[in-house]
Amino acid sequence: MKKIVVGITGASGTLLAVRFLENIKNYEIHLVMSESAKKVMSLETDYDINYIKGLSTYFYDDNDIAARISSGSFIFDSFVIIPCSTSTMAKIASGIADTLITRVALVALKERRKFIIVPREMPFSTIMIENMLKLSNNNVIVSPAVPGYYNKPKTMNDLINFVVSRILDLSNIENDLSKRWEHE
Ligand SMILES: Cc1cc2nc3c(=O)[nH]c(=O)nc-3n(C[C@H](O)[C@H](O)[C@H](O)COP(=O)(O)O)c2cc1C
Questions:
Q1: 2.60.40.3410, 3.30.559.10, 3.40.50.920, 3.40.50.1950: which CATH number matches 2-170?
Q2: Which of 39, 85, 104 has most ligand 1 atoms within 8 Å of CB, for mutation?
Q3: Mean pLDDT for the chain?
Q4: How far is the CA of 175 from the CAs of 30, 57, 124, 167, in angstroms?
Q5: Which of 103, 159, 160, 161 has its CA 20 to 30 A from that of 23?
Q6: pLDDT for residue 179
Q7: Per-residue pLDDT tens for 23-39?
Q8: Ligand 1 centre from 78 Cα, in Å?
Protein backbone atom coordinates (compact mmCIF):
# COMPACT_ATOMS: atom_id res chain seq x y z
CA MET A 1 0.00 0.00 0.00
CA LYS A 2 1.27 3.47 -0.86
CA LYS A 3 2.19 5.73 2.02
CA ILE A 4 1.69 9.46 2.43
CA VAL A 5 2.95 11.57 5.32
CA VAL A 6 0.89 14.66 6.11
CA GLY A 7 2.02 17.45 8.41
CA ILE A 8 -0.37 20.09 9.72
CA THR A 9 1.26 23.22 11.15
CA GLY A 10 -0.03 26.36 12.81
CA ALA A 11 -0.70 28.48 9.74
CA SER A 12 -4.30 29.49 9.23
CA GLY A 13 -6.20 26.92 7.16
CA THR A 14 -6.87 23.79 9.23
CA LEU A 15 -9.90 23.38 6.97
CA LEU A 16 -7.56 22.76 4.03
CA ALA A 17 -5.83 19.93 5.90
CA VAL A 18 -9.12 18.33 6.89
CA ARG A 19 -10.50 18.44 3.34
CA PHE A 20 -7.21 17.06 2.01
CA LEU A 21 -7.24 14.13 4.47
CA GLU A 22 -10.92 13.42 3.74
CA ASN A 23 -10.10 12.94 0.06
CA ILE A 24 -6.99 10.75 0.18
CA LYS A 25 -7.88 7.32 -1.17
CA ASN A 26 -5.86 4.08 -1.23
CA TYR A 27 -2.98 5.38 0.87
CA GLU A 28 -1.72 4.57 4.33
CA ILE A 29 -1.85 8.02 5.95
CA HIS A 30 0.78 9.01 8.52
CA LEU A 31 -0.30 12.24 10.19
CA VAL A 32 1.55 14.71 12.43
CA MET A 33 0.07 17.91 13.88
CA SER A 34 2.23 20.56 15.51
CA GLU A 35 1.13 22.00 18.85
CA SER A 36 0.39 25.32 17.14
CA ALA A 37 -1.73 23.49 14.57
CA LYS A 38 -3.88 22.10 17.40
CA LYS A 39 -4.27 25.61 18.82
CA VAL A 40 -5.20 27.09 15.43
CA MET A 41 -7.66 24.21 14.83
CA SER A 42 -9.49 25.05 18.05
CA LEU A 43 -9.47 28.79 17.34
CA GLU A 44 -10.65 28.73 13.74
CA THR A 45 -12.73 25.56 13.32
CA ASP A 46 -15.32 23.44 15.11
CA TYR A 47 -13.32 20.25 14.48
CA ASP A 48 -11.94 18.29 17.35
CA ILE A 49 -8.63 16.49 17.34
CA ASN A 50 -10.25 13.06 17.40
CA TYR A 51 -12.04 13.69 14.13
CA ILE A 52 -8.76 14.69 12.47
CA LYS A 53 -6.88 11.77 14.03
CA GLY A 54 -9.60 9.46 12.73
CA LEU A 55 -8.83 10.51 9.16
CA SER A 56 -5.34 9.02 9.47
CA THR A 57 -4.02 5.48 9.66
CA TYR A 58 -1.27 6.47 12.11
CA PHE A 59 -1.11 9.65 14.18
CA TYR A 60 2.08 10.99 15.81
CA ASP A 61 2.94 13.77 18.24
CA ASP A 62 5.18 16.44 16.77
CA ASN A 63 7.62 16.01 19.65
CA ASP A 64 7.95 12.26 18.99
CA ILE A 65 11.24 12.55 17.16
CA ALA A 66 11.80 8.78 17.50
CA ALA A 67 8.63 7.94 15.53
CA ARG A 68 9.26 5.53 12.67
CA ILE A 69 8.57 8.21 10.04
CA SER A 70 11.61 10.15 11.36
CA SER A 71 14.00 7.69 9.70
CA GLY A 72 15.19 7.65 6.13
CA SER A 73 14.56 3.90 6.24
CA PHE A 74 10.80 4.57 6.33
CA ILE A 75 9.79 4.72 2.69
CA PHE A 76 6.92 7.00 1.78
CA ASP A 77 5.60 8.22 -1.55
CA SER A 78 5.08 11.84 -0.65
CA PHE A 79 5.16 14.32 2.19
CA VAL A 80 2.69 17.18 2.26
CA ILE A 81 2.68 20.00 4.82
CA ILE A 82 -0.76 21.60 4.67
CA PRO A 83 -0.99 24.36 5.74
CA CYS A 84 2.70 25.16 6.20
CA SER A 85 3.54 27.95 8.62
CA THR A 86 6.27 30.35 7.62
CA SER A 87 8.08 29.36 10.82
CA THR A 88 8.21 25.68 9.82
CA MET A 89 9.17 26.72 6.29
CA ALA A 90 12.09 28.79 7.65
CA LYS A 91 13.29 25.92 9.83
CA ILE A 92 13.22 23.49 6.90
CA ALA A 93 15.05 25.95 4.64
CA SER A 94 17.75 26.25 7.33
CA GLY A 95 18.09 22.51 7.92
CA ILE A 96 16.63 22.66 11.45
CA ALA A 97 14.92 19.41 12.46
CA ASP A 98 13.79 19.90 16.06
CA THR A 99 10.24 18.54 15.63
CA LEU A 100 8.89 15.44 13.92
CA ILE A 101 7.49 17.52 11.04
CA THR A 102 10.80 19.30 10.39
CA ARG A 103 12.70 16.00 10.81
CA VAL A 104 10.51 14.30 8.15
CA ALA A 105 11.14 17.35 5.94
CA LEU A 106 14.89 16.96 6.36
CA VAL A 107 14.56 13.26 5.47
CA ALA A 108 12.39 14.07 2.42
CA LEU A 109 15.08 16.48 1.21
CA LYS A 110 18.06 14.21 1.81
CA GLU A 111 16.29 11.18 0.31
CA ARG A 112 14.98 13.24 -2.63
CA ARG A 113 11.35 12.27 -1.99
CA LYS A 114 8.28 14.05 -3.32
CA PHE A 115 7.68 16.97 -0.97
CA ILE A 116 4.90 19.55 -1.22
CA ILE A 117 4.34 22.53 1.07
CA VAL A 118 1.25 24.72 1.21
CA PRO A 119 2.38 27.97 2.84
CA ARG A 120 -0.20 30.52 3.97
CA GLU A 121 0.65 34.07 4.86
CA MET A 122 -0.12 37.49 3.47
CA PRO A 123 1.87 39.42 2.50
CA PHE A 124 5.14 37.49 2.22
CA SER A 125 8.30 39.06 3.65
CA THR A 126 11.49 38.94 1.60
CA ILE A 127 12.82 36.31 4.00
CA MET A 128 9.75 34.12 3.38
CA ILE A 129 10.19 34.50 -0.38
CA GLU A 130 13.89 33.62 -0.07
CA ASN A 131 12.97 30.52 1.95
CA MET A 132 10.45 29.47 -0.71
CA LEU A 133 13.07 29.96 -3.42
CA LYS A 134 15.59 27.90 -1.47
CA LEU A 135 13.09 25.08 -1.01
CA SER A 136 11.93 25.25 -4.62
CA ASN A 137 15.58 25.00 -5.73
CA ASN A 138 15.73 21.80 -3.67
CA ASN A 139 12.80 20.26 -5.57
CA VAL A 140 10.14 21.08 -2.99
CA ILE A 141 6.84 21.94 -4.66
CA VAL A 142 5.76 25.26 -3.17
CA SER A 143 2.01 25.42 -3.68
CA PRO A 144 0.56 28.27 -1.65
CA ALA A 145 -3.03 28.29 -0.44
CA VAL A 146 -4.15 30.58 -3.28
CA PRO A 147 -7.46 29.72 -4.98
CA GLY A 148 -8.34 30.57 -8.57
CA TYR A 149 -11.50 32.46 -9.41
CA TYR A 150 -12.05 31.39 -13.02
CA ASN A 151 -14.66 28.78 -12.03
CA LYS A 152 -16.81 31.49 -10.40
CA PRO A 153 -16.68 30.20 -6.80
CA LYS A 154 -19.84 30.89 -4.79
CA THR A 155 -18.98 29.51 -1.38
CA MET A 156 -15.99 29.11 0.91
CA ASN A 157 -16.29 25.41 0.17
CA ASP A 158 -15.61 26.11 -3.51
CA LEU A 159 -12.45 28.04 -2.60
CA ILE A 160 -11.22 25.32 -0.24
CA ASN A 161 -11.93 22.61 -2.81
CA PHE A 162 -10.01 24.51 -5.48
CA VAL A 163 -6.85 24.64 -3.38
CA VAL A 164 -7.18 21.09 -2.07
CA SER A 165 -7.86 19.59 -5.50
CA ARG A 166 -4.57 21.05 -6.77
CA ILE A 167 -2.67 19.56 -3.84
CA LEU A 168 -4.35 16.18 -4.44
CA ASP A 169 -3.37 16.43 -8.12
CA LEU A 170 0.24 17.19 -7.15
CA SER A 171 0.19 14.17 -4.82
CA ASN A 172 -1.11 11.93 -7.68
CA ILE A 173 -4.40 11.32 -5.86
CA GLU A 174 -7.41 11.07 -8.14
CA ASN A 175 -10.14 13.52 -7.33
CA ASP A 176 -12.91 15.56 -8.84
CA LEU A 177 -13.20 18.03 -5.99
CA SER A 178 -13.08 21.04 -8.22
CA LYS A 179 -14.35 21.57 -11.76
CA ARG A 180 -11.47 21.53 -14.23
CA TRP A 181 -11.12 24.37 -16.69
CA GLU A 182 -12.82 23.70 -20.00
CA HIS A 183 -12.73 26.14 -22.84
CA GLU A 184 -13.05 25.69 -26.58
C1 LIG B 1 -5.11 31.92 14.70
C2 LIG B 1 -3.69 31.89 14.22
C3 LIG B 1 -3.44 31.98 12.88
C4 LIG B 1 -2.13 31.93 12.37
N5 LIG B 1 -1.95 32.02 11.03
C6 LIG B 1 -0.70 31.91 10.54
C7 LIG B 1 -0.51 31.91 9.12
O8 LIG B 1 -1.44 32.02 8.33
N9 LIG B 1 0.75 31.74 8.65
C10 LIG B 1 1.82 31.57 9.49
O11 LIG B 1 2.94 31.41 8.98
N12 LIG B 1 1.67 31.58 10.84
C13 LIG B 1 0.44 31.73 11.38
N14 LIG B 1 0.25 31.72 12.75
C15 LIG B 1 1.44 31.67 13.61
C16 LIG B 1 1.97 30.25 13.84
O17 LIG B 1 0.98 29.45 14.47
C18 LIG B 1 3.23 30.33 14.73
O19 LIG B 1 4.30 30.94 14.01
C20 LIG B 1 3.68 29.00 15.25
O21 LIG B 1 4.84 29.15 16.03
C22 LIG B 1 3.96 27.99 14.13
O23 LIG B 1 4.40 26.79 14.72
P24 LIG B 1 4.52 25.45 13.84
O25 LIG B 1 5.22 25.84 12.59
O26 LIG B 1 5.33 24.53 14.69
O27 LIG B 1 3.15 24.93 13.64
C28 LIG B 1 -1.05 31.78 13.27
C29 LIG B 1 -1.31 31.68 14.65
C30 LIG B 1 -2.61 31.75 15.11
C31 LIG B 1 -2.86 31.64 16.59
A1: 3.40.50.1950
A2: 85
A3: 97
A4: 20, 20, 30, 10
A5: 103
A6: 86
A7: 999 999 999 999 999 99
A8: 23
